[in-house]
Amino acid sequence: MSNASRQTMIDAVTGEFRRLYGGEPDGLFFAPGRANLIGEHIDYNGGHVLPCALTRGTYAAVRKRADQNFQFYSLNFPEEGPGTDQSWTSYMTGVMQVFAKAGMSMDTGMDVVIGGDIPAGAGLSSSASLEVLTGTILKELYGFSVSGEDIALYGQEAEQKYVGVECGIMDQFACAMGREGYAIDLDTAAVTFEYVPIPTDGISLILTDTNKKHDLRTSEYNRRRQECEEALRQLNEAALKQLNAAAARERDPEPHNPGHDPEPHSPGHDPEPHTPGHDPEPIPCLCALSPERFEELSNGIDDPVLRRRAAHAVYENERVRLAAEALRGGDPETMGRLMNESHQSLRDNYEVSCFELDVLAEAAQAIPGVLGSRMMGGGFGGCTISLVRDEALESFKKIVAEEYRRETGIDCTVHACRSGGGPVRIR
């Protein structure tokens, strides 16, 4: 986002604040949206993900009140007017409730004007941006001692408990911990991370919006999480059966021949049979499995649909590992190939793509100079993300737009994408 565009957003929220509430705000704040290079639908399965913060995001003009009342207004939803019960305010009030539960209650209310340049429902985490923005406002205006990691975790809890989306940690973490020029190699199980440089020399990240909006609360997002949990349960059962079978072979390694009974063993020297009280450590999450270990156990999942869901999680996690290695090694071609494989798995194994996303990804993948393209976000609409050589940019924009219009009858929107930093108090 250019400095002029940023100033336009700052002027817009400040001007609306003066119009609605009179006077000046106590502070102006920004939190970014996020793009995910690769690693979709595995943050809640304990996998690694590779997101980056964006220069696009959400802005707020805020002033503390003398009473306990709250007034929220969004430039993106002007028809809803100021108040506390608009369709989007649960993201903010949810974060406030999580802070309060952690012993950080606000002593006064506040007046807020929100504005953003993240298309709602496009898969760029406008909700996580708003949650991280809220946490930053509370930290700065009310003096709460919280880290960026804390703000991310509080935002995740708010979305799960007060919005109803069983999300993982990726979106909030990327928005809270972004660094310009870098992606975040985030281990969502341990919540540890490393910054990985994003290639910028002659290569662009392009977001292409289907202009088909989605709502994760009404999509099958939560169902996918439930399916993964059931697949994990069955894999743990399969691992236990495998252990019992191995123990049985150890106790009786040779087939029994009635004519050649072995010498009896002393009961005190027999191997201990496996008992439920001595269960091995369970598999904690799908992404704790290597592809090889998953293949050993996968027949223990009785439903082929659940098997495909688990396969996506395990192999997507491996793709993220390889993608991070490729970026560290300056190998964008491998990164692009892995993005294409990710889209195929999201389409066929996880079944969260849709016709519009497939049209965009397949059109892009066929263009010389496009290294990779895939759907991004929760799915069922939103954006694709593409890794495009600069000399192919004009061809990309023309061919993808024409193909999409021909196949769907609607227009897509193409955005150049730059990685940005985390949340800030502007003034």
Report on this model:
By secondary structure, this protein is an alpha+beta fold. It has a domain at 3-198: Ribosomal Protein S5, domain 2 (2-Layer Sandwich). 42% of the residues lie in helices and 19% in strands. Strands 1, 2, 3, 4, 5, 6 and 11 form a 7-stranded mixed beta sheet that branches. Strand 8 (370-376) and strand 9 (383-389) form a beta hairpin. The two termini are 19 Å apart. The model is unreliable at 262-277 (pLDDT under 50).
Helical region count? Answer: 11
CATH topology descriptor of one domain: Ribosomal Protein S5, domain 2
Low-confidence stretches: 262-277
- Work out the strand percent: 15-25%
Cα-atom radius of gyration: 25 Å
Structural class: alpha+beta
What summary fits the major beta sheet? 7 strands, mixed
Instruction: State the end-to-end distance.
Output: 19 Å
Second CATH tier, the architecture of one domain: 2-Layer Sandwich
Q: What's the order of the H and E elements?
A: HEEEHEHHHEEEHHHHHEEHEE
- Characterize the overall form: globular
Q: How many strands in all?
A: 11
CATH class of one domain: Alpha Beta
Helicity range: 40-55%
Average pLDDT confidence is 91
Task: Using brief descriptors, characterize the structure shown.
4-stranded antiparallel beta sheet; 7-stranded mixed beta sheet; 11 helices; Ribosomal Protein S5, domain 2; 11 strands; 427 residues; alpha+beta; 42% helix
What's the helix and strand layout?
Elements: H1 3-21, E1 27-38, E2 48-64, E3 70-74, H2 90-101, E4 110-116, H3 126-142, H4 148-163, H5 170-177, E5 182-187, E6 192-197, E7 203-209, H6 221-251, H7 291-297, H8 304-328, H9 332-348, H10 355-365, E8 370-376, E9 383-389, H11 393-408, E10 413-417, E11 424-425
Helix pairs in contact: 2-3, 2-4, 3-4, 3-5, 4-5, 6-8, 8-9, 10-11
